[in-house]
Amino acid sequence: PQTIYRKDYTPTPYLIKHVYLEFLLNEDSTHVISRLSMLPNYGSASAPPILELDGRKDIKLLTVKVAGKELQPSEYDLTEKLLTLSKLPKGEFEVEIKENTSLEGLYKSGGNFCTQCEAEGFRGITYFLDRPDVMAKYTTRIEADAKSYPVLLSNGNLLEQGSLEGGRHFAVWEDPFVKPCYLFALVAGDLAVREDSFKTMSGRTVTLRIYTRAKDIDRVAWAMESLKRAMKWDEDTFGLEYDLDLFNIVAVDDFNMGAMENKSLNIFNSRLVIASPSTSTDMDYSRVEGVVGHEYFHNWTGNRVTCRDWFQLTLKEGLTVFRDQEFSADLNSRPVKRIEDVMRLRTAQFVEDAGSMAHPIRPDSYIKMDNFYTLTVYEKGAEIVRLYQTLLGKDGFRKGMDLYFKRHDGQAVTCDDFRNAMADANGQDLSAFAAWYAQAGTPHVKIAASYNAANRTYTVKASQQTLPSPGQSEKGPVPIPVAVGLLGQDGTELPLNLKGESAEPATTKVLLLTEKEQEFVFTEVSEKPVPSLLRDFSAPVKLEVEGQTEDELVFLLAHDKDAFCRWEAGQRLLRSLLTSLYTSASASKEAKLEDRLSAAGAVPDKIVAAIGAVLSDKELDGAFVAAAISLPAAAELIGSIPNIDPVLLHNVRQYLVRELAARLRPELEAAIKRNESAAGASYVPGDSKQAAQRAIKNKALSYLSALKDPQVTADLLQRTRSATNMTDQISALACLVDSESPEREIALAEFYEQWKDDGLVMLKWIALQAGSNFEGNLKNVEKLVSHPAFSITNPNACYSLFLAFLRSPVNFHAADGSGYTFIADSILKVDKINRQVASRMVSSSAFTAWKDYDVERQQMMKEQLARINAENGLSENVFEIVSKSLE
Ligand code: B3K
Ligand code: ZN
């Protein structure tokens, strides 16, 4: 396989002014005619260079014409991946290609034709300059059988449609905006539609349409509502208006990713469009809102201004994730949204950034671009965009965005262009931020602070270090804004004066750490404060606070005004508690875990009381409380404890859950009672208050379920039956599936009977069982693979089953290696069907971070990696990740 390097970028010798495409869709083959108006881009002096059009072996070329003249096969060069034309005319000319295409790029889902071109799928449809810096206008004519494919869609405006002989019909679409080919889309099928409209800030009316299969069409109201809110939000927040008179969303069941932002024709994974209270959880609702927003926001950040090359992917993805995060924060609880985003970053992106696939948000090389649609490019990329806003303020950030669009509308640009727009609009030098784009790994920040009562000064010493990652042994400092507050003994915020700074006192100050080590001094500090550090998670770093005591953390958990830091204080308490429990548990593996831990009086009253106080605080947002009483994920500890035994860690974690549940039982029961009313009220989509009530109630239930009290178990079974919405129903079921009991079997069977005809709900049923943590569940998971509710050709089903299994420490990491073998077998099987799904299975697995585990498991994981690597006909996608993990 060939590695592509960022440093090798060269401008394209030709551009394309206009693309005319004609699709003749048939059941067994699709005939494509493509007419390209070529523009020279090589400078007038030289002779026309060769033109290399990207393609794929499954396209069958019929004829090529250059400037109206058909070429003989001897006059062009055709390989598996390229069609090369030479002896081309000077100036502009037309290339016409006729071919038959296979189902790559253009494929069928549920009987309908659809496309997925990003990153490099367009070359599977026709020979083309398949690179994002070639931006053209497109006209597309589609012809198909009228009965099987009544709906024919492409980008832009409908120009013409009509019927043809033989029961066929056609439609012609024209997109007036230039775009790269990865934003091309076509849909042909039998689809139901729901229509609405949006009036833009300049008074234009935009028609909005959502297409699904007929059976799903009455469940798209929330997606439509989310779309309208997103359109309004982008106008209000960034002054960005939609630019066409039509916006389409099409839902399909077979889709590798969440959704795709094709110009005016978004294609979505159906699980991110279809929602109803009885079939979707609060989490599903907020995902639909977030992703509908995300794809819509791409219209400006991605489509109007796109990426020069794929290494710049974070230019559009990091920025658009940041935009969808802000959108959701504005519409719901901002603090809770921030906490959720940080959790995801820490539990998944930090792991990726420390593993064998670690890469900068702007990677230096790749084998398959599809492998780089990562948490790093997306979520860490969003954090880097957020740094600008933290530093420049919302107004400064907006100025930067305005300048970015003013300079680059209609262009394909780089991450440097974005940073320069931010810098120039604010008259600031942001060149040091380039390091964030170049360096992989999560920086570790250490802070030591001291109070000088005589001088009334508070000195903050900060240092930073980033560990080496593959291909990057030496790393320098990156600019890190650390937002700081200081709390007085009564919990109020002290006014902050920073030495050497003329700004007004404030209760939060941002310290910009640019060196390896730096010192900041606060003056006129009236008393010894408790510091509140990295407020709102002001940078994607790991923070260590020297000398921070349990008492300080308990104090912050009770008093900090910054919701993130308040939550974080609790997480720090629990993280260090889990670490010390784990350490004592691993010291003597023979005795019974429970006895050893409880004999040591292991869970301090102080911590139980602090958690109990949050739980009982009626003033707090229930979603915040639910997050604050949740234990840190195992993923947050793996990597910080060398050679970890993940099963022991799981057992220690479960011990702590039981301990908290037993000692806080009255508080938990009271919280359930207080919030039970949400179950009675009828479900209102997007009502955060209701959702918060469900969140705290269901969190409390999950604590109680750990007690294995027969009464609780009976109550949970009852709840799976009487729930009036999916959030409550699936939460109760989740509480039952982690251990073997008759109630578990009854609840699963009843749930199946109730929902077996709903594919999306069945995905949840599969995931719950596949992720179950009782010993020996692998045999059930193997049965699930041949269950009629599962289909290995459906990407969602694979994610529900295999990715959920990867998250079961007990079974995936089973000491006999059976979980590793099962996953390796499954990866090889899926790779033959869908290489993108297979590579997601590898990259989501602990295989890429085997060095973090105990030596026995390291050995077994390496064996499986080697076995996958040796497979004949392994895809380049899987090869790239497996081979990097073996290095
Ligand atoms: N841009 C698409 C991702 C395409 C994935 C290609 N393998 C979804 C998104 O980020 O909006
Ligand atoms: Zn995106």
From TrEMBL:
Top-rank taxon: Eukaryota
Family: Belongs to the peptidase M1 family.
PANTHER family, per the entry: PUROMYCIN-SENSITIVE AMINOPEPTIDASE (PTHR46322)
Gene3D superfamilies per record: 2.60.40.1840, 3.30.2010.30, Neutral Protease Domain 2, Peptidase M1, alanyl aminopeptidase, C-terminal domain, tricorn interacting facor f3 domain
UniProt cross-references to NCBIfam families, sorted A to Z: pepN_proteo
InterPro entries the UniProt entry points to: Aminopeptidase_N-like_N, Aminopeptidase_N-like_N_sf, PepN_Ig-like_sf, Peptidase_M1, Peptidase_M1_dom, Peptidase_M1_pepN, Peptidase_M1_pepN_C, Peptidase_M1_pepN_C_sf
Full protein name: Aminopeptidase N
Zinc found in the keyword field: yes
Species this protein is from: Coccomyxa subellipsoidea
